[in-house]
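quick one before i forget lol
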Amino acid sequence: METTYNHKLVIGSGFSGIYIRCSYKKLLEKLGDDFQLSQLKEGKKLDECSDDKIRHEWILTSGPNGDQVITIYDYKEDRKILRDTIINWHVGCKGLTSETVRKVLTVDYEFTDEELDFE
């Protein structure tokens, strides 16, 4: 899977029932810049690239048309997230089963079973 900054690809995705419990810093190290950070680096204002429910989001895609999508995001996290703050990040998907998402996260991105939580 590849990280993309094409936010249109998340349309139709939904929560997979999986959480990743780790720090913002760890996600930056494993996945690179989140969508909002990439937009800020391009000079956009934060309110142009986030909403009141999500302030950090990664979009991972695969498939010939980017039709398989995994999103990792901080849904309704009211507190400010510092680099070392550990939270439960929501994992969404489109075109993949939750079991496939879990395999991608553990095999491709080397998240441990201890870092993953299932609803």
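fyi The mean pLDDT is 87.
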